[in-house]
Specification:
Belongs to the site-specific recombinase resolvase family. The chain is mainly alpha-helical. It has eight helices and three strands.
Length: 189
């Protein structure tokens, strides 16, 4: 507070909660208070953003609105060409780091696929459960709800795994019935 008063700040906003919380009411009030030509002053960069990406997003938003930014501890002032340069270097480094993370993630996923690892969410129903559901659905007394409860899945899951059911039970019966093969004829010699 002393550093902000010494810097000549007209209005001071101070959050009492931890900076790691997403709900920083006073920060949002301060950002809403600022008008074009104003400068947001913080004692240090860590007081404004929880991460470099968060910090860059906030300062970029300020710049678009014509609001300057100054960090006292780091002597960073985006109202000067040198301060803007330093901040652009921060932004470029953050983007570079993000791209490295994405590249590493994609390489890891590709390696896992090459090893035959199954990626993503596990299926809600096994093939055996789908067959069982189809068998149960063929019986007119069974409802989709009762079958879903029996199998421990939702009604929507039943409809997703037995898509022919969307056309009604008649469509299901037609899809699950196998056409009868013609019986071989005996020739009497």
């Amino acid at each position: 507070m002393h550093a902000l008063n010494t810097a000549g700040c007209i209005r001071i906003f101070s959050d009492k909660k931890s900076g790691k919380n997403a709900e920083r009411e006073e920060l949002w009030k301060a950002l809403a208070y600022l008008r074009e030509g104003d400068t947001l002053v913080v004692p240090s960069l860590d007081r404004l953003g929880r991460s470099i990406q968060d910090l860059i997003a906030i300062v970029s938003g300020l710049r678009k609105r014509g609001v300057g930014f100054t960090s006292l501890h780091e002597a960073l002032d985006t109202t000067t060409p040198g301060g803007r340069l330093v901040f652009h270097v921060f932004a470029a480094l953050a983007e570079f780091i993000r791209e490295l993370i994405v590249q590493g993630t994609n390489e890891g996923l590709d390696a896992a696929r090459a090893r035959g690892a199954r990626l993503g969410r596990p299926p809600a129903m096994t093939e055996e459960q789908v067959r069982h559901a189809r068998d149960l659905l063929a019986r007119p007394g069974n409802t989709v709800t009762s079958i879903a409860k029996l199998l421990g899945v939702s009604r929507n899951t039943i409809y997703n795994y037995v898509p022919e059911l969307k056309g009604g039970r008649l469509a299901l019966a037609e899809a699950t019935s196998t056409p009868e093969l013609p019986q071989p004829t005996r020739s009497e010699d």
